[in-house]
Amino acid sequence: MSASVDFYVPEFGRQLGFDAVISTGVAWNGDRLDGTLTTPNRRGAEKARCLRALIEERRDTEVFAYGNSSSDLPHLAVAKHGLLVNGSLSARRAAADRGIATAEWV
Questions:
Q1: Domain residue limits, the chain
Q2: Which of 19, 83, 8 is CA-nearest to residue 54?
Q3: Helices (H), 1-106
Q4: What is the pLDDT of residue 66?
């Protein structure tokens, strides 16, 4: 799941072996990007909404998620195992306030 656009995220997901990918849809005009979105931007509360819908659809209980910014905190709070990675100081503080684990990866 990424707020990035759907002209490359699905391919990354396929190469990584994921069976589902959620990303922000973009419109095309022939072989050129139109510049408009076909879905809401999949970040913040929208990313959390998408994760809730996927959990409900699959009836998953063990949900793992990670993110790297404060805009990822809403979906990390939804996941059973949310992890903020290399977040800013303010994002780490906000994660701690919500009980979301943090990590620093090098």
A1: 1-42, 61-106
A2: 19
A3: 9-16, 45-58, 73-78, 89-98
A4: 94
State how far the Cα of 25 lies from the Cα of 68, in Å rounded to an integer: 21
CB 99 within 8 Å of CB 80: no
**pTM assigned to the model:** 0.88
Cβ-Cβ contacts under 8 Å for 7 (sequence gap 6 or more): 26, 33
Q: If the chain, 106 residues long, is cut into consecutive pieces of 10 residues, what is the mean pLDDT of each piece? A: 93 93 94 93 97 94 94 97 97 98 96
CA angle, 4 then 14 then 39, to 5°:
35
